[in-house]
Amino acid sequence: MAFSRFAYAPAPESRSAVNIRPSYGLFIAGEWASPLDGGHFKTESPSSQEVLAEVSSAGPEDVDRAVRAARRAYEETWAPMPGKERAKYIFRVARLIQERSRELAVLESLDNGKPIKESRDVDVPLAAAHFFYHAGWADKLAYAGLGPDPRPIGVVGQVIPWNFPLLMAAWKLAPALATGNTCVLKPAETTPLSALVLAEIFEQADLPPGVVNIVTGDGGTGATLVAHPGIDKVAFTGSTEVGKHILGALAGTGKRITLELGGKAANIVFDDAPLSQAVEGIVNGIFFNQGHVCCAGSRLLVQEPVAEGVVEALKRRLATLRLGDPLDKNTDIGAINSPQQLEKIRELAAAGEAEGAERWSPACQIPERGYWFPPTVFTGVAPGQRIAREEIFGPVLSVLTFRTPEEAIEKANNTTYGLSAGVWTDKGSRALQVASRLKAGVVWANTFNRFDPASPFGGYRESGFGREGGRQGLSQYLKGALDG
Amino acid sequence: MAEGRLGVRKTYKLYIGGAFPRSESGRSYEVKGAGGEFLANVALGSRKDLRDAVVAARKAQPAWAKATAYLRGQVLYRAAEMMEGRRGQLALAVAAAEGVGSGDAASGVDTAVDRMVWYAGWSDKLAQVAGGTNPVAGPYFNFSIPEPTGVVGILAPESSSLVGLVSVLAPVIVSGNAAVVVASEARPTPAVELAEVLATSDLPGGVVNILTGRTAELAPVLAAHRDVEALDLAGAPEALEVDLEVAAAGNVKRVLRRRKPEPDWAAQPGPERMLHFLETKTVWHPMGL
Amino acid sequence: MLAHPGTGPGGPRVRLGHPRLSAEPRLAAVTSSVKLAGLAELAERTEEGHAGGLCPAPADLFELTRPEASLRRLLHGLPGVDQVGAEGRAASLATRSIKAASKLWAIDTAISMLDLTTLEGADTPAKVTSLCGKARRPDPSDPSVPAVAAVCIYPDLVPAAKVALAGSPVKTAAVATAFPSGRASLAVKLADVADAVSAGAEEVDMVIDRGAFLSGHYAKVLDEVQAVREASRQACLKVILETGELSTYDNVRRASWLAMIGGADFIKTSTGKVSPASTLPVALVMLEAARDFTEATGRAVGVKVAGGIRTTKDAIKYLVVVNEVAGEEWLDPSRFRIGASGLLNDLLMQRSKQRTGVYAGSEDWSIE
Fold first, then answer.
1. Are C149 and C160 in contact (CB under 8 A)?
2. Complex ipTM, two decimals?
């Protein structure tokens, strides 16, 4: 290692900040309930394979109870409540998240495997910010430009992924609550814990029973939830494959749907880019959260005159990344969330090699226990190869080159996805023009992976539809003129 | 209160640049309650105090405007939290100043707290509502963003000593303006209480400055001051209104006129007061490869 | 980094068309392994006499051969620095935490990198003598504390420092060239330098002409650096950019390259007389420049940060940036210096805390 004399401490965040219960029930109608027809499963830490807690799995009857509770709360409490009172509940939630931020960050890193510096500096503060931002909207909906008398849709079924468990819960719940809907949330099977602490926070906030119900479980629970006839709207974040399945399953039901699905984002570096910062942006784009990011910049498109230098600088930078204990404040790369995901990453990386791309990883020590994958760069990637087309959802970067802006735009758009993209150039005119021609829901210019509750997020094409954040995000939870 | 214990009275001071000075003039004036009883001797702000307040506001305004909208929202919400924590004290001040019953005073304080929360929520939405992109006919990226006007002078409503004050102050500062407020002349004590709340919230010193004194003495100086960009005449004495507008014309101040009859300050406002103290900036940028 | 395709170490050499530049052997050796597109492009244009991508008209071609234009092209061919990104990176490095054992090492390293400084109009030989005592033995009660790297003073006090530092490894550094403004004729600046060097200064801290730099007269800046380089003879030359006056990181990077091409042994952030003085992102940009220049030319250049670094925590943040951006080779007084005065006592205080576990009192160390 390069730090022989000047070693960073293992600086583990203390686990004592978290008090994980041995087992968790379902959070239905403001109470912790044992599953009626479900079961239990264990959630483990992907970095140590240690079992963290036993969690309930909601069966169809449990889901039904949750939907009924949400319906009752919708009709009797939440929808009739004046916006400014709803706002105050949501402000409370924002503040409680801020107050319990350390606990939530440690818990998130334990359950998900992400580095504590990310859960501490990104996931948890952004989750609080989402509640704060949307709290303000609750009594200002008439000013959102979404019609003179905006009304909620009803009961919303929300299914979220494991890559940002708390943040995705916030993205889903905050706008739904602000607009007067009630929710049944299904956290991901491998990362249920932070949503359950969020349920405790709802209790502390005195949120009326049934306004938010949390049903843990696997994909089956999620499928039951989205298909439940008592649900008026489905919001799903996850794979494109499951998203298509949901669309098919809900055909003809009239339910409103928003989908935030996969991506294969191009990160385009022009030869006049601020290159040191571009290298940081490439690193942040693909190695943030171990690449478990639907908008990850997994395809680096770099202009030929600077390609060699950028790759060289990138490799030098990657050699300084620190992989290991997610609770260590100096860790840059944490654990892969599950053995299934690790297997998928390995399979695609192997395919990259088999198809002739050149594979490179920095020297780095892989811990003995847990699920890990080193930061990996493929150079000499051809646009037709699997690693250039399929979402890997891991710390694997495919490097392609281009000669002209036209070629860059064409290659960037040559995908069935369209969630995000990056542009690096010192020329503002070019950044704006390239951004306008990219088929992607979010385009970052000279930065990457920035999120804000005021900024709409969501995809083009098979990356889904609907937006989260901003005024546009609110509209997804309001009844429109086109609704029957 | 325990029998025979003599209360410790508060000295009511000015609020300038985050500090609580007495008037540089050393003057004060007697404030009476609604029943004519002695309430307090309140600082009688001078022209020089007003000048100092404008200097403090000018100094604080750029950093306040540059702070993220999210942060400004948090700070205003924090101020609401602090107001809630001092509800009792604020209610006593309002009851004494306005001569209303304790129940009315308390509900007035609740309204004032909720008003602060309402404006806090606007901080990061204002640009989304008041700004936008403009589809100009050409290869240009064109967008308009609202920016704060700068230093805003406020003549606070005369009768509604707390709800009225919060209703004119919060919309000015939430967008990044700094304020120099002349409190209600006859009912100034709730304003001083509010200043003490603001001083213990996270609001940077100088963003809000509150002067007590004679409106007729201070208002013309404020209206003519060339380092003040806008003026809210909510509490302007009728006899002075025209003169104040004339003085304000000297540097083309954005004047928000007094509404007649006086609005019900407790009623839910719209975004108009915020919008009045904003400038729209439009940016053109070419788009090309 | 940032290779131009088809060039590498041992590729075509750049001649900048600047008489002084090509006369100075180590400068002519700025090979295209500098790997900056602008530099390599310049090489093609100036050596082969034809245009690269932009096809300049004949008049422009003539311009290109003029030194000012060459320099301009080189400096403006350096990749830009995005302010938000650079500051974000520096802020993220500042969150690293250091192992307790490494902290002691870092404190001692920081002490050994110190240019203990006094630059007041009220300085006297007596004040300098007492500072030199502190420089030699920062903690008289603990001989394991290393000496600092140098004492940094005005030229007229060099004789006093030489006497006080005799027999110690601590170097005498003099600020020269009409420090801190640099507003004097070249002749006066050179006389200032000659004065310092002949009095025995082993290190010279010069200032660049910021006015000339900001008005684009890069050749004038370069000429002065080179002239001072010559006048400094064997002394270690630190070139102060006064980044607080340069306004942008792009300018910081350009001035860094200009100073290194001119022969700087160190590039230094600030005089300490202008605010802002050194900041982490400025240090980051300068360390990148020093690293790239060193890699390109084989001549190692160091970085000195100065002004506003008062606490051990600050100093360690800088060391983290040095370590991650330039690499471990720069964690040495020959490649990294910290100009400060009050910092030393804080380092001693933290050192004692690390060793004894007890927080020290503010009067436990001498104030010079």
1. no
2. 0.94
